Every structure is written in C-alpha cells, then in structure tokens.
Amino acid sequence: MRRIAGIDEVGRGCIAGPVIAAAVIFAPGQDTAGFTDSKRLSAERRRVLASRIRSESLAWAVGRAEVSEIDRLNILRATHLAMCRAVAALPVSPDWIKVDGNRYPPLDCPGEAVIGGDASVAEIAAASILAKVFRDREMQVLDRLCPGYALGVHKGYPTRLHVDRLSSLGVSVSHRRSFGPVREVIDRSSAP
C-alpha cells in the first residue's frame, strides 16, 4: 500500500512568530471522518483531532522556519523549508506527497500541489490541523515572552489590535522585520 503524506503550513500571513508545517501519513484503514481545513474548526475540535492524529496516524511530524529565516529567505522559501523539515522528521518515508497550495516544495519525494487540499484531501487537512494546534500553542508561549502584544489572541496576524500594539510598543524579537507593518514601525522609529 502506498504511503501518502499530506503537508500544510500555518502562519504565512502573520507578522510575528515562526511558520509551522506538518506532515501526516495515515495508517491503513484509519478513520478520517471529521478532518477538514483547520480554519473551519473550533479550537477545541482542532485539539481533539490533533490528539487523534498523533495517536492513530502511521506517522506525523512538525517542521518550522524561524522569524530570522523568514526575514532572510522570504516567506515562500521559509515555508518550503518548514515543509522539508517536517517531511525529514517523519519516522517513515512517504511514497507520494500531497501539499496544500499551488507550489510543490523542493522535496526528494514525488508528489503534487493541490489547491484547496486542506478542504479536500484528508492527509492535508490533518496536517493543517496539527500545524495550527502547534503554532497556536507556540503563540501562547510568545505571548508570555513578549507581553503586551496580545500574541495569544491574534496569533501574530496583522489585526488592528496587533498593529496598534506594534505601533505603541515597538518591534519585538518575535516580529518579522521584512513584513510591511513591522517595517513601517522600524522606519518611523529610525526617522530623524
């Protein structure tokens, strides 16, 4: 039986924190009911399904790219790096990979990019759930390490609250300096 890994990421559109990717290979005959795009699920449902993925799947792994890598490489290349790290961390090798989106990362395994795959391919949906749960936990930690920005609330996305706090508090170590709203704050603070 062919081992198919699904891959997805979370955090590309954020202005703070890492980008997190997950890879999931289902066990033969595993029940995949209820797996869909993580954005369509409540936080509690994602946690329940993530626990199920970790305990029932044949293999799963998480990869990441740090803020410094995002700023140095650009977000697409950093996302692909996180995906490659997730696949490299799998305890078993896949035979085929399905990646959410329209670009296939530079992986040594054959596969395909699937637009809307997080809503249509169970393995990709599971990866999106796992990545979201891991990144949300990470943002709770960053919220404690960088108080005042409400990172645990908006998860690093450029909401009005986040941009207001960024403007008033300045740039933290968790912020992506290459992203527009952060760059604007840096430019304003360095202007004469």
TrEMBL record:
This is Ribonuclease HII. It holds the Pfam family RNase_HII. Manganese or magnesium. Binds 1 divalent metal ion per monomer in the absence of substrate. May bind a second metal ion after substrate binding. InterPro entries: RNase_HII (IPR022898), RNase_HII/HIII (IPR001352), RNase_HII/HIII_dom (IPR024567), RNaseH-like_sf (IPR012337), RNaseH_sf (IPR036397). Belongs to the RNase HII family. PROSITE patterns: RNASE_H_2. GO terms for molecular function: RNA-DNA hybrid ribonuclease activity. It catalyses: Endonucleolytic cleavage to 5'-phosphomonoester. Its cofactor is Mg(2+); Mn(2+). It comes from Methylococcus capsulatus. Its EC number is 3.1.26.4. A divalent metal cation binds at D8, E9, D100. It is found in: Cytoplasm. Residues 2-191 form the RNase H type-2 domain. The keyword Aminoacyl-tRNA synthetase does not apply. Keywords: Cytoplasm, Endonuclease, Hydrolase, Manganese, Metal-binding, Nuclease. Endonuclease that specifically degrades the RNA of RNA-DNA hybrids. PANTHER family: RIBONUCLEASE H2 SUBUNIT A, RIBONUCLEASE HII.
